[in-house]
Amino acid sequence: MNKASIYFLLLCTLFLVVVHEARAQGTQVFEKEFAPEPYECVPKAHKTYYKKVMDRARQAFEQNLKRSGGQRAMPPLFDWPLRQAEGFDYPGYYAISNFVDQASDTTLLDYNCGMRTYDGHDGTDIRIVPFRWNKMGNDEVEVIAAAPGTIIFRQDGNFDQNCAWGGGTPWNAVFIQHADGTITWYGHLKNGSVTQKDSGDVVAAGEYLGIVGSSGNSTGPHLHLEVYDPMGNLVDPFQGPCNSLNNDTWWNDQVPYFDSGINRLITASQQWTSPACPQQAQIFEKTVFDPGEAITFSVHYRCDLNTNTTQLTAFEPDGDTSTLLNILYQRGGNFFSTNPSALWNNTIPNNAPKGKWIFEAVYNTSTYGTLAYQNEFWVAETCQADRNFVGTHTISRYYQASNTITSTADINNGVHVVYDPENYTILSPGFSAPVGSKLEIRTAGCN
Ligand SMILES: [Zn+2]
After folding, report:
1. 78 in the same domain as 211
2. What does the alpha-carbon distance between residue 394 and residue 34 come to, in Å, rounded to a whole number?
3. Residues 70 and 191 in one domain
4. 415 alpha carbon to ligand 1 midpoint, in Å?
5. How far apart are the CA of 213 and the centre of ligand 1, in A?
């Protein structure tokens, strides 16, 4: 290295040091006033503003109460603040990822003396799982009022696909004041999904407020629920030995600390993708298979513990246990907050029995009682161009056709038949399908 190069390097280093110091000073000032702390669902500057909003609402509320001479109502009891939108009916759809941090120092302490929180977290975070970006994209999970009240703050129009904290962009949210003056926050809602009702409008318990999203300081779609009593003191709605904020539960029906369960069972043609945030996964869900086709069974949990067991079974149409899947599964570690899943790949045998199969999971028979989950899938009849049925269907079957299906056949009680032609189905006007039987017409055609 010659002298000139060394001088140049020294100059560069000096320049870098100066720039770095300037930035550090600038950052310090910035942090004090505006920048969010790391690990905060609600940046400090936003919180200061929201506290003013709440103070105003509280003052008005107390003045009204005084003026009317009325008695203060009892504190509300909350119903669950989420529900599946119409058309979605999975066994489960959420997992609690963070409770309120009860520790005033930098240690972590949740209401149950565990550490399922992060430093300075004032709310309860409820994720939607599995496949949360898909769930958000499909408007699958609605945020609803946990108790009746009046809207005191509403904000919409903000970007909703954040994947990291620290951006400091505002969230979409609704704040509700309840009959006794308690205030609840519902934050991180999807852009454009927030209720059309505005400040001053009344909402009923269970009324739609928005769709779960990832607006504001958020790593992915979840609801941040935050509660303040009429005095403005923070409330942790969960009752437990390390809740030093309040003694009682604020829930009508408090979910267990370890709310273990199965959110979904899926049959698919292959494993789902895990694309970069915020892209949606491809799930490859498939419920109709031909013999010889690949099949992937997957189970998606919430809060799975290593003491929990799952018996996973594929039952043939006659009820026999299949060699396709017959596994007693137990996880090696605990998964409280994320959405653990497991999968098994196999191939439908060429001689597999045709008809309706059951993919069943029995989770924790001893610990939580019998929790059985079932998904049906079909091994279809060989595809033909056209099909014509007469007589009576006496067994459940899935019929595919690349053109049409014509039928005058009746269906016996308890029998489930699917006609799936590419073009059209012609049914005789007189055919009978008694209560307990099931005829489905689909239009996907051959696999
Ligand atoms: Zn949060």
Report:
1. yes
2. 71
3. yes
4. 48
5. 12
Q: How far is the CA of 225 from the centre of ligand 1 (A)?
A: 7
What separation in Å is there between the alpha carbon of 118 and the centre of ligand 1? Answer: 9
If asked whether residues 120 and 213 sit together in one domain, one would say: yes
Q: Which domain holds residue 208?
A: 44-235
Q: Are residues 267 and 375 in the same domain?
A: yes
DSSP code of residue 270: S
Is residue 67 located within the same domain as residue 13?
A: no
- 345 and 422, same domain (yes or no): no
pLDDT tens for the chain, 447 residues: list them. Answer: 444 444 433 333 333 333 232 222 222 222 222 233 345 788 888 889 999 999 999 999 999 999 999 899 999 999 999 999 999 999 999 999 999 999 999 999 999 999 999 999 999 999 999 999 999 999 999 999 999 999 999 999 999 999 987 667 899 999 999 999 999 999 999 999 999 999 999 999 999 999 999 999 999 999 999 999 999 999 999 999 999 999 999 999 999 999 999 999 999 999 999 999 999 999 999 999 999 999 999 999 998 888 889 999 999 999 999 999 999 999 887 777 667 899 999 999 999 999 999 999 999 877 777 778 999 999 999 999 999 999 999 999 999 999 999 998 999 999 999 999 999 999 877 777 788 899 999 999 998
Residue 252 Cα distances to 237, 248, 249, angstroms: 10, 11, 8
Q: Number of structural domains, the chain? A: 4
Examine the domain organization and report whether 168 and 201 are in the same domain: yes
Ramachandran region, residue 412 (left: φ > 0; alpha: ψ -120 to 50; beta: rest)? beta
Residue 141 tokens, joined:
């999970």
Evaluate whether residue 113 is within a structural domain: yes
CA of 224 to the centre of ligand 1 (A): 4
Contacts of 65 (CB under 8 A, 6+ apart): 72, 181
- Are 310 and 196 in the same domain? no
